[in-house]
Amino acid sequence: MKILVDYIGHADLAYSMYALFEKRLGFEIYRPLGGPEWEGEGVHTSTLPDVAGDQVEIDGLQCIPMPTHGYTQKCVTLEQFKDMHFDALLTTSWMNEEPFNKLVKKYKPNAKLIRQIANIHEVPKVCKNILLSTCEPMKPGINWIKYLPEHLDKYNYVPSVSSNLSIKSFFNYMKNYKVEEEMWRKYEAALPEFEFKMHGGDGEHGSIPQEELEVVMRDATLIWHVKPHGGCGYTARQALACGKPLIVRKDYCRMHRTLAMNYLVDGANCIDISPSFRSFEDSVKLIREWSNPETYLERTKQVIAETMKHNNFEEEAIKIKEWLTRLI
What is the CATH number of the domain that holds 58? Predict the structure, then answer.
Protein backbone atom coordinates (compact mmCIF):
# COMPACT_ATOMS: atom_id res chain seq x y z
CA MET A 1 0.00 0.00 0.00
CA LYS A 2 1.03 3.59 -0.64
CA ILE A 3 -0.11 6.24 1.84
CA LEU A 4 0.31 10.01 1.86
CA VAL A 5 0.92 11.22 5.44
CA ASP A 6 1.16 14.89 6.34
CA TYR A 7 3.58 14.49 9.28
CA ILE A 8 2.13 17.44 11.16
CA GLY A 9 3.43 17.33 14.72
CA HIS A 10 6.57 16.39 16.60
CA ALA A 11 9.37 14.00 15.69
CA ASP A 12 8.11 11.12 17.86
CA LEU A 13 4.69 11.19 16.20
CA ALA A 14 6.34 11.22 12.78
CA TYR A 15 8.50 8.24 13.76
CA SER A 16 5.43 6.32 14.94
CA MET A 17 3.96 6.64 11.42
CA TYR A 18 7.13 5.18 9.93
CA ALA A 19 7.33 2.45 12.58
CA LEU A 20 3.76 1.30 11.97
CA PHE A 21 3.43 1.56 8.21
CA GLU A 22 6.94 0.93 6.90
CA LYS A 23 8.83 -0.98 9.59
CA ARG A 24 5.94 -3.18 10.77
CA LEU A 25 3.68 -3.46 7.72
CA GLY A 26 6.06 -2.94 4.80
CA PHE A 27 3.94 -0.19 3.21
CA GLU A 28 5.28 2.94 1.51
CA ILE A 29 4.52 6.32 3.04
CA TYR A 30 5.19 9.75 1.59
CA ARG A 31 4.81 13.31 2.82
CA PRO A 32 3.91 16.46 0.88
CA LEU A 33 7.02 18.44 0.02
CA GLY A 34 6.39 21.88 1.45
CA GLY A 35 5.74 24.65 -1.03
CA PRO A 36 3.17 26.93 -2.66
CA GLU A 37 1.73 24.17 -4.85
CA TRP A 38 0.49 22.24 -1.80
CA GLU A 39 -0.54 25.44 -0.06
CA GLY A 40 -2.66 26.23 -3.11
CA GLU A 41 -4.62 23.06 -2.35
CA GLY A 42 -5.10 24.22 1.24
CA VAL A 43 -2.65 21.63 2.60
CA HIS A 44 -0.67 22.52 5.71
CA THR A 45 2.87 21.16 5.51
CA SER A 46 4.75 20.86 8.74
CA THR A 47 7.83 22.80 9.71
CA LEU A 48 10.68 20.32 9.91
CA PRO A 49 11.84 19.52 13.45
CA ASP A 50 15.34 20.44 14.57
CA VAL A 51 16.36 16.78 14.38
CA ALA A 52 15.84 16.64 10.59
CA GLY A 53 18.86 16.31 8.34
CA ASP A 54 19.49 18.04 4.99
CA GLN A 55 17.29 17.01 2.08
CA VAL A 56 18.77 14.48 -0.32
CA GLU A 57 17.49 13.14 -3.64
CA ILE A 58 16.79 9.40 -3.80
CA ASP A 59 15.21 7.81 -6.89
CA GLY A 60 13.87 11.14 -8.10
CA LEU A 61 12.30 12.06 -4.77
CA GLN A 62 13.43 14.64 -2.26
CA CYS A 63 13.98 12.82 1.04
CA ILE A 64 14.52 14.03 4.58
CA PRO A 65 16.82 11.97 6.84
CA MET A 66 15.80 11.78 10.49
CA PRO A 67 19.12 10.68 12.04
CA THR A 68 17.91 10.77 15.66
CA HIS A 69 15.11 8.34 14.78
CA GLY A 70 16.94 6.22 12.20
CA TYR A 71 14.76 6.54 9.10
CA THR A 72 14.15 8.76 6.07
CA GLN A 73 10.94 10.55 5.06
CA LYS A 74 10.09 10.39 1.36
CA CYS A 75 8.59 13.60 -0.05
CA VAL A 76 6.43 14.20 -3.12
CA THR A 77 5.55 17.33 -5.00
CA LEU A 78 1.94 17.88 -5.95
CA GLU A 79 2.69 16.83 -9.54
CA GLN A 80 4.40 13.62 -8.34
CA PHE A 81 1.41 12.95 -6.11
CA LYS A 82 -0.97 13.29 -9.07
CA ASP A 83 1.04 10.80 -11.12
CA MET A 84 1.35 8.15 -8.37
CA HIS A 85 -1.14 5.59 -7.12
CA PHE A 86 -2.16 6.08 -3.48
CA ASP A 87 -4.35 3.74 -1.47
CA ALA A 88 -4.98 6.21 1.33
CA LEU A 89 -4.39 9.77 2.47
CA LEU A 90 -3.79 10.02 6.20
CA THR A 91 -3.72 13.24 8.18
CA THR A 92 -2.44 13.54 11.73
CA SER A 93 -3.91 17.03 12.11
CA TRP A 94 -7.37 18.56 12.12
CA MET A 95 -5.96 21.28 9.85
CA ASN A 96 -5.56 18.85 6.94
CA GLU A 97 -8.73 16.83 7.33
CA GLU A 98 -10.80 18.91 4.91
CA PRO A 99 -7.89 19.66 2.48
CA PHE A 100 -7.05 15.94 2.30
CA ASN A 101 -10.71 15.14 1.73
CA LYS A 102 -10.69 17.56 -1.22
CA LEU A 103 -7.50 15.95 -2.57
CA VAL A 104 -9.20 12.55 -2.51
CA LYS A 105 -12.24 13.83 -4.40
CA LYS A 106 -10.20 15.87 -6.88
CA TYR A 107 -7.28 13.58 -7.66
CA LYS A 108 -7.60 10.17 -5.99
CA PRO A 109 -11.28 9.11 -5.91
CA ASN A 110 -10.37 5.49 -5.19
CA ALA A 111 -8.19 6.33 -2.18
CA LYS A 112 -9.49 6.30 1.38
CA LEU A 113 -9.30 9.24 3.77
CA ILE A 114 -7.95 8.37 7.22
CA ARG A 115 -7.42 10.56 10.26
CA GLN A 116 -5.04 9.79 13.13
CA ILE A 117 -6.26 11.35 16.38
CA ALA A 118 -3.96 11.59 19.39
CA ASN A 119 -4.70 15.01 20.87
CA ILE A 120 -7.16 15.26 23.70
CA HIS A 121 -10.86 15.82 23.04
CA GLU A 122 -10.47 15.90 19.27
CA VAL A 123 -13.15 14.34 17.09
CA PRO A 124 -13.23 14.00 13.29
CA LYS A 125 -14.77 16.75 11.17
CA VAL A 126 -15.41 14.97 7.86
CA CYS A 127 -13.37 11.78 8.05
CA LYS A 128 -15.11 8.50 8.88
CA ASN A 129 -11.98 6.31 9.25
CA ILE A 130 -10.00 6.95 12.41
CA LEU A 131 -6.76 5.62 13.88
CA LEU A 132 -7.53 6.52 17.47
CA SER A 133 -4.89 7.10 20.14
CA THR A 134 -7.21 8.40 22.83
CA CYS A 135 -10.26 7.10 24.67
CA GLU A 136 -12.45 9.89 23.32
CA PRO A 137 -15.88 8.47 22.36
CA MET A 138 -16.56 8.40 18.62
CA LYS A 139 -19.99 9.09 17.20
CA PRO A 140 -22.02 6.32 15.51
CA GLY A 141 -20.95 5.76 11.92
CA ILE A 142 -17.25 6.33 12.60
CA ASN A 143 -15.03 3.41 11.58
CA TRP A 144 -12.31 3.58 14.25
CA ILE A 145 -9.58 1.38 15.64
CA LYS A 146 -7.74 2.17 18.86
CA TYR A 147 -3.96 1.76 19.06
CA LEU A 148 -0.85 2.86 20.93
CA PRO A 149 1.75 4.71 18.77
CA GLU A 150 5.19 3.12 18.82
CA HIS A 151 8.27 4.71 20.35
CA LEU A 152 11.96 4.34 19.45
CA ASP A 153 13.64 0.97 19.95
CA LYS A 154 16.33 2.38 22.22
CA TYR A 155 13.70 2.61 24.95
CA ASN A 156 14.08 -1.13 25.07
CA TYR A 157 12.64 -2.50 28.34
CA VAL A 158 16.05 -2.93 29.97
CA PRO A 159 16.07 -1.89 33.65
CA SER A 160 18.65 0.56 34.92
CA VAL A 161 19.69 1.86 38.32
CA SER A 162 20.19 5.59 38.92
CA SER A 163 23.56 6.96 40.03
CA ASN A 164 21.85 9.19 42.61
CA LEU A 165 18.38 9.93 43.94
CA SER A 166 16.69 12.17 41.39
CA ILE A 167 13.24 13.09 40.15
CA LYS A 168 13.11 14.54 36.64
CA SER A 169 10.38 16.15 34.59
CA PHE A 170 10.51 16.42 30.79
CA PHE A 171 7.19 17.87 29.66
CA ASN A 172 7.13 21.41 28.32
CA TYR A 173 6.12 24.59 30.09
CA MET A 174 5.33 23.38 33.59
CA LYS A 175 5.68 26.98 34.75
CA ASN A 176 2.60 27.87 32.71
CA TYR A 177 0.56 25.83 35.19
CA LYS A 178 0.59 27.43 38.62
CA VAL A 179 -0.98 24.51 40.51
CA GLU A 180 1.43 21.98 39.02
CA GLU A 181 4.52 24.11 39.66
CA GLU A 182 3.41 24.66 43.26
CA MET A 183 2.97 20.91 43.64
CA TRP A 184 6.47 20.32 42.23
CA ARG A 185 7.94 22.82 44.74
CA LYS A 186 6.02 21.24 47.61
CA TYR A 187 7.41 17.78 46.88
CA GLU A 188 10.87 19.20 46.27
CA ALA A 189 10.84 20.74 49.76
CA ALA A 190 9.53 17.53 51.35
CA LEU A 191 12.15 15.32 49.67
CA PRO A 192 15.47 17.14 50.21
CA GLU A 193 17.48 13.95 49.63
CA PHE A 194 16.31 13.95 45.98
CA GLU A 195 17.72 16.11 43.20
CA PHE A 196 14.77 17.65 41.32
CA LYS A 197 15.40 18.47 37.65
CA MET A 198 12.80 20.38 35.63
CA HIS A 199 13.60 19.88 31.94
CA GLY A 200 11.45 20.66 28.90
CA GLY A 201 10.60 24.01 27.32
CA ASP A 202 10.76 26.80 29.93
CA GLY A 203 12.21 24.32 32.44
CA GLU A 204 14.89 25.78 34.67
CA HIS A 205 17.27 22.93 33.82
CA GLY A 206 16.77 23.20 30.06
CA SER A 207 15.42 20.94 27.35
CA ILE A 208 17.22 17.69 26.62
CA PRO A 209 18.21 17.07 22.97
CA GLN A 210 16.43 14.09 21.42
CA GLU A 211 19.64 12.11 21.03
CA GLU A 212 20.43 12.46 24.77
CA LEU A 213 16.95 11.94 26.21
CA GLU A 214 17.13 8.20 26.78
CA VAL A 215 20.42 8.44 28.71
CA VAL A 216 19.13 11.27 30.90
CA MET A 217 15.92 9.36 31.58
CA ARG A 218 17.77 6.23 32.63
CA ASP A 219 19.80 8.25 35.12
CA ALA A 220 16.63 9.37 36.92
CA THR A 221 15.11 7.49 39.84
CA LEU A 222 11.53 8.52 39.09
CA ILE A 223 9.98 10.58 36.31
CA TRP A 224 7.56 13.34 37.24
CA HIS A 225 4.76 13.56 34.70
CA VAL A 226 2.00 15.54 36.37
CA LYS A 227 0.76 16.94 33.08
CA PRO A 228 -2.51 18.86 33.30
CA HIS A 229 -3.27 19.28 29.60
CA GLY A 230 -2.74 15.71 28.48
CA GLY A 231 -1.85 12.89 30.73
CA CYS A 232 1.07 10.82 29.54
CA GLY A 233 2.08 10.45 25.91
CA TYR A 234 5.37 9.55 24.25
CA THR A 235 7.65 10.86 26.99
CA ALA A 236 5.81 8.95 29.69
CA ARG A 237 5.76 5.71 27.71
CA GLN A 238 9.45 6.04 26.88
CA ALA A 239 10.23 6.48 30.57
CA LEU A 240 8.19 3.39 31.47
CA ALA A 241 10.01 1.39 28.80
CA CYS A 242 13.26 2.36 30.56
CA GLY A 243 11.83 0.92 33.79
CA LYS A 244 11.35 4.34 35.37
CA PRO A 245 8.37 4.63 37.72
CA LEU A 246 6.19 7.64 36.98
CA ILE A 247 4.77 10.16 39.41
CA VAL A 248 1.41 11.12 37.91
CA ARG A 249 -2.05 12.43 38.53
CA LYS A 250 -4.38 9.89 36.96
CA ASP A 251 -7.31 12.20 37.51
CA TYR A 252 -5.89 14.23 34.60
CA CYS A 253 -5.83 11.10 32.44
CA ARG A 254 -9.46 10.39 33.23
CA MET A 255 -10.42 14.03 32.72
CA HIS A 256 -8.91 14.04 29.23
CA ARG A 257 -9.74 10.42 28.31
CA THR A 258 -6.15 9.50 27.43
CA LEU A 259 -4.85 5.99 26.78
CA ALA A 260 -2.87 6.33 30.01
CA MET A 261 -6.09 5.55 31.89
CA ASN A 262 -5.41 1.94 30.90
CA TYR A 263 -1.63 1.54 30.88
CA LEU A 264 -0.86 3.48 34.10
CA VAL A 265 -1.40 1.16 37.05
CA ASP A 266 -0.90 2.66 40.49
CA GLY A 267 1.39 0.51 42.58
CA ALA A 268 2.79 -1.28 39.54
CA ASN A 269 4.33 1.32 37.21
CA CYS A 270 3.33 4.63 38.74
CA ILE A 271 2.56 6.53 41.93
CA ASP A 272 -0.73 8.37 41.63
CA ILE A 273 -0.48 11.58 43.65
CA SER A 274 -3.97 12.81 42.75
CA PRO A 275 -5.12 14.61 45.94
CA SER A 276 -8.48 12.85 45.75
CA PHE A 277 -6.74 9.47 45.67
CA ARG A 278 -3.76 9.70 48.03
CA SER A 279 -2.64 12.18 50.68
CA PHE A 280 0.48 14.24 50.25
CA GLU A 281 2.10 12.56 53.25
CA ASP A 282 1.40 9.07 51.91
CA SER A 283 2.71 10.04 48.48
CA VAL A 284 5.99 11.31 49.93
CA LYS A 285 6.36 8.12 51.94
CA LEU A 286 5.71 5.97 48.88
CA ILE A 287 8.25 7.86 46.76
CA ARG A 288 10.88 7.14 49.39
CA GLU A 289 9.89 3.47 49.59
CA TRP A 290 10.04 3.01 45.82
CA SER A 291 13.46 4.66 45.68
CA ASN A 292 15.09 2.40 48.25
CA PRO A 293 18.39 1.30 46.65
CA GLU A 294 17.99 -2.22 48.02
CA THR A 295 14.72 -2.79 46.18
CA TYR A 296 14.85 -0.30 43.32
CA LEU A 297 16.12 -2.70 40.64
CA GLU A 298 13.21 -5.06 41.32
CA ARG A 299 10.88 -2.10 41.12
CA THR A 300 12.18 -1.16 37.66
CA LYS A 301 11.63 -4.75 36.51
CA GLN A 302 8.06 -4.60 37.75
CA VAL A 303 7.52 -1.32 35.89
CA ILE A 304 8.76 -2.91 32.66
CA ALA A 305 6.67 -6.05 33.13
CA GLU A 306 3.51 -4.01 33.66
CA THR A 307 4.29 -1.72 30.73
CA MET A 308 4.92 -4.61 28.33
CA LYS A 309 1.42 -5.93 29.04
CA HIS A 310 0.10 -2.87 27.23
CA ASN A 311 2.81 -2.32 24.59
CA ASN A 312 2.47 -5.01 21.92
CA PHE A 313 3.20 -3.01 18.78
CA GLU A 314 3.50 -6.04 16.52
CA GLU A 315 0.09 -7.36 17.55
CA GLU A 316 -1.49 -3.95 17.08
CA ALA A 317 0.13 -3.59 13.64
CA ILE A 318 -1.49 -6.87 12.55
CA LYS A 319 -4.90 -5.64 13.71
CA ILE A 320 -4.42 -2.33 11.90
CA LYS A 321 -3.40 -4.17 8.72
CA GLU A 322 -6.60 -6.20 8.87
CA TRP A 323 -8.58 -2.99 9.45
CA LEU A 324 -6.89 -1.29 6.49
CA THR A 325 -7.38 -4.31 4.24
CA ARG A 326 -11.12 -4.30 4.90
CA LEU A 327 -11.21 -0.55 4.32
CA ILE A 328 -9.14 -0.41 1.13
Answer: 3.40.50
